[in-house]
């Protein structure tokens, strides 16, 4: 197994950018892969491109437009507004069916062609907003499936799986990239860089975690 190279599933948001710098500390060569699925917050692709260029990371954007066609939701349709609060029952309307499964599958194909075994993704079971494809059991299951499907030894790393947003900010701080994450990433579902719109669930989760971390840091 090649332990020197890794591919990061990269959106340009807080979690994936933290994972990118986590990977840069652990692997000699890191490649970032982003996906264009005609998402409403398409500015995240520009953000991802800028971060990779600035910090000297090889970057690829793969076309996954079919996902938009298959899974209408608030991230892919202008006429569907993002839920401001999590629903009492069912999944938030920002959940894109099959997204993480497809992202990781395509990244695995990409990685195998380059002789890379390590795949890194920023999913978290602690702050997963009810998304089933952010659970540890799904990642472990897909890891086995990808190994069997391609007869190849992948290892999917999930540095954020068991930590919450405050701890994710702490990890960024420990990596020396807190300001980069705060100012240069795009987490907002409405496509606003940095602190975002402050209204969507992603912005609220991000800001609440930041406040909690800074409070604990200054105690």
TrEMBL record:
Residues reported in the UniProt entry to bind Zn(2+): 188, 197, 200, 203
UniProt cofactor(s): Zn(2+)
Listed InterPro entries: QueC, Rossmann-like_a/b/a_fold
EC number: 6.3.4.20
Reaction(s) the record says it catalyses: 7-carboxy-7-carbaguanine + NH4(+) + 2 ATP = 7-cyano-7-carbaguanine + 2 AMP + 2 diphosphate + 2 H(+)
Record GO terms (molecular function): ATP binding; ligase activity, forming carbon-nitrogen bonds; zinc ion binding
Pathway: Purine metabolism; 7-cyano-7-deazaguanine biosynthesis
GO-annotated biological processes: tRNA queuosine(34) biosynthetic process
Alphabetized SUPFAM superfamilies for the sequence: Adenine nucleotide alpha hydrolases-like (SSF52402)
Enzyme class: ligase
Keywords (A to Z) from UniProt: ATP-binding, Ligase, Metal-binding, Nucleotide-binding, Queuosine biosynthesis, Zinc
Cofactor binding: number and manner: Binds 1 zinc ion per subunit.
Top-level taxon of origin: Bacteria
Self-association and partners: Homodimer.
Recorded family membership: Belongs to the QueC family.
Name under which the protein is recorded: 7-cyano-7-deazaguanine synthase
Organism of origin: Tepidibacter thalassicus DSM 15285
């Amino acid at each position: 197994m090649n332990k020197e190279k890794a591919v990061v599933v990269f959106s340009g948001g807080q979690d994936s950018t933290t994972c990118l710098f986590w990977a840069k500390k652990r692997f000699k060569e890191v490649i970032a892969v982003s996906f264009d699925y005609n998402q409403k917050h398409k500015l995240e692709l520009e953000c991802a491109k800028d971060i990779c260029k600035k910090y000297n990371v090889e970057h690829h954007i793969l076309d996954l437009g079919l996902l938009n066609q298959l899974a209408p939701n608030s991230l892919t349709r202008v006429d569907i507004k993002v839920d401001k609060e999590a629903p009492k029952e069912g999944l938030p309307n920002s959940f894109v069916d099959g997204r993480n499964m497809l992202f990781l599958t395509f990244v695995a194909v990409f990685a195998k062609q380059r002789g890379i075994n390590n795949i890194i993704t920023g999913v978290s079971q602690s702050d997963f907003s009810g998304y089933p494809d952010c659970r540890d059991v799904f990642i472990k299951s897909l890891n086995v499936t990808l190994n069997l499907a391609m007869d190849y030894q992948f290892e999917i790393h999930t540095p954020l799986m068991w930590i919450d947003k405050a701890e994710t900010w702490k990890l960024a701080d420990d990596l020396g990239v807190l300001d980069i994450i705060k100012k240069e990433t795009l987490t907002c579902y409405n496509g606003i860089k940095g602190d975002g719109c402050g209204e969507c669930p992603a912005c609220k989760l991000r800001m609440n975690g930041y406040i909690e971390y800074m409070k604990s840091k200054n105690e």
